[in-house]
Each structure stands twice: as structure tokens, then as C-alpha cells.
């Protein structure tokens, strides 16, 4: 019963369905970043399986000639970051993925998870960028620390995806009100747009998209020096509109059987999604 609702946000259970989604987006001039779903693992073997799923994904992108249209997004928790000795385990796994991505001319972006993982994720990013300088990272505007992190990241070649943040965080580390989060987002966005890196605006918020457009103009950014990113299945018409205007747009495309955590975060973000979800139990 929940399947049609899950399908709105997740491209499918398996790799071939993800590739169909990438091709459909490409037909509208939209690139993709693919997320093989999987997080909160408990065993090293699962970390290896998740790494291998990304290697298979990159192999398929290469075979299908889609390396120029799609990159990959990685959750380090799925690579074992939360296990004992997890920092090194995750680094070794994601390094293999970066090597495979580089070999087909594409990139890897590290998702950001709950606040306890930020130091480890940024340290792994710094290690990876020595050999793979185009490795990107997501930063969350709701965290009090992020303005400072963003200042350090707004450097040449650095790909930074700015998002509001999707985890439930305490007030000791994160802004709580929508207004404070939005204001922090704009401050971080200004630093990124004024800097030398490659900003990736990860938001569906129409006001923030508009502000990004204006800041890009103010700082004289070329159209290929930043991009908009939105989640698969959310505000598709806006994704198409931005692409039709000649702007760079990339959709974040999750796929895989382990969709529960991702799906629940999308429900939590928007009460209307919950209504849509509950209605699927009553209308069949
Ligand atoms: P906001 O939540 O204010 O939404 C603005 C408007 O967008 C809504 O009014 C609605 O129209 C639409 N919308 C937003 N969410 C919707 C939903 N779930 N369903 C339907 N419509 C919706 N977070 C994180 O912590 N770590 C990460 O690595 C990432 N990565 C990431 C990549 C990309 C490409 C995007 C777009 C987002 C993320 N996120 C993330 C999620 C992010 O932190 C945030 O939770 C969501 O993007 C929702 O925030 P908005 O900026 O869209 O604004």
C-alpha cells in the first residue's frame, strides 16, 4: 500500500530503475547525483556490500555512457563510519569509490548526517581532496558551526552543497526556528557565492532559490560555476523551469531496497507528505 508513496521519492529498488530515472532527467537537461540507499549499518560486511554497490553503479554509468550526466552521493554511515574504527573503514571504502568515479570522469559528494559525524566527515573530505580535489560535501545551515566550516570550504575547486539540514538536532548545536535556519542559510550562501569554490544550492525553497540567483549575479558568477540541486520527486516543475532557463540543475536520485530512513526524513519535512502517505491506506 505504501509503494506508490515511496515511489514518489525513491527511483526504485534496483540499479536499472535508477538508470531509467537518470535518462529521464537528462532528457530535460537535468543531471543526477545517485544515492544507493543504506545507512545505520551494524557490521563491517555491510560496509563492504555498500561500497561494492557504488562500484557496480559507477561501472553501469560508464557502460551506459552516463558518466557525464551523473555523479554519486555517499552516506559515510553506510560505509561503516559509526562502527568501532569506523573513520578509517569509511575512508578506505569511499576512497575506492572516488578512484572508480575519477576513472569514469565523474565525482563523489559526501552527504552530511547527524552532528556527531561532522568532524569525521570533514576530516575524510580533506583526506580525499588531496587525491580527488573535486570531491564534494554537504553542509547543513541549521548547525551553529556551519558558517565557520563554510568559510574554510569556500576555496578553489571545492564543491559544497548547502542544505538546511534534515536531522533532529538539539538547540546546543543547531538553530531551531525556520527563520533562524533560513537566515543562516543565506549567510552561508553569501560566503559560498563570494568565494572561489563551486556552490551547490540544495534547497526547494523558492525564496532561497531566488536569493541564490541574485547572489550569483551580484558576484558575477558564470552559469557553469554553481548549480541548483533538488531531491528526486520534489518540485519537478521548478527543476524543469530552472534547467529551461539554462541553469545547471542536478536531482538527487535515491534508489535501493533500504529506503526507510530516507523516506521517513522526507515525510517529517512536510506535513502534507504525511497526509498523502496516510491517504494511501484509505484509498486503494
Ligand atoms: P523547506 O523544507 O523549507 O521546503 C521549501 C519547499 O520545498 C516546501 O514548501 C515544499 O514546497 C518543498 N518541499 C521541501 N521538502 C519537501 C518534501 N519532503 N516533500 C515535498 N515538498 C517538499 N540534508 C542533510 O541533513 N544532509 C544531506 O546530505 C542532505 N542532502 C540533500 C541533498 C539535496 C540535493 C537536497 C535538495 C536536500 C538535501 N538534504 C540533506 C535535505 C535538506 O537538509 C532539507 O531537509 C530538505 O531539502 C528540505 O529543505 P528545503 O531547503 O527544501 O526547504
TrEMBL record:
FAD binds at residues 112, 140, 164-166, 203-204. GO terms for biological process: L-proline catabolic process to L-glutamate. Residues 21-276 form the Proline dehydrogenase domain. One of its GO terms (molecular function) is nucleotide binding. It holds the Pfam family Pro_dh. It is an enzyme of class 1 (oxidoreductase). This is proline dehydrogenase. It comes from Thermomonospora echinospora.
Amino acid at each position: 500500500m505504501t509503494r506508490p508513496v515511496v515511489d514518489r521519492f525513491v527511483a526504485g529498488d534496483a540499479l536499472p530503475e535508477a538508470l531509467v530515472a537518470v535518462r529521464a532527467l537528462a532528457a530535460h537537461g537535468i543531471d543526477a547525483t545517485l544515492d544507493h540507499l543504506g545507512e545505520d549499518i551494524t557490521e563491517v560486511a555491510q560496509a563492504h556490500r555498500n561500497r561494492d554497490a557504488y562500484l557496480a553503479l559507477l561501472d553501469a554509468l560508464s557502460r551506459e555512457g552516463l558518466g557525464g550526466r551523473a555523479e554519486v552521493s555517499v552516506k559515510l554511515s553506510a560505509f561503516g563510519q559509526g562502527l568501532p574504527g569506523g573513520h578509517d573503514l569509511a575512508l578506505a571504502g569511499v576512497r575506492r569509490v572516488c578512484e572508480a568515479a575519477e576513472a569514469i570522469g565523474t565525482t563523489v559528494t559526501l552527504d552530511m548526517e547527524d552532528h556527531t559525524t561532522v568532524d569525521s566527515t570533514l576530516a575524510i573530505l580533506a583526506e580525499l581532496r588531496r587525491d580527488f580535489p573535486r570531491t564534494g560535501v554537504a553542509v547543513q545551515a541549521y548547525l551553529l558551526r556551519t558558517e565557520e566550516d563554510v568559510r574554510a570550504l569556500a576555496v578553489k575547486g571545492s564543491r559544497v552543497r548547502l542544505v538546511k539540514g534534515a536531522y533532529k538536532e538539539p538547540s546546543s548545536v543547531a538553530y531551531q526556528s525556520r527563520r533562524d535556519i533560513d537566515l543562516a542559510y543565506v549567510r552561508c550562501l553569501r560566503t559560498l557565492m563570494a568565494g572561489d569554490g563551486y556552490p551547490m544550492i540544495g534547497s526547494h525553497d523558492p525564496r532561497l532559490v531566488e536569493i541564490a540567483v541574485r547572489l550569483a549575479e551580484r558576484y558575477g558568477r558564470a552559469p557553469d560555476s554553481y548549480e541548483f540541486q533538488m531531491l528526486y520527486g520534489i518540485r519537478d516543475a521548478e527543476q524543469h523551469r530552472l534547467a529551461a532557463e539554462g541553469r545547471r540543475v542536478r536531482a538527487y536520485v535515491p534508489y535501493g531496497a533500504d529506503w526507510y530512513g530516507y523516506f521517513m526524513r522526507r515525510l517529517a519535512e512536510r506535513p502534507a507528505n504525511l497526509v498523502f502517505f496516510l491517504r494511501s491506506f484509505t484509498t486503494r
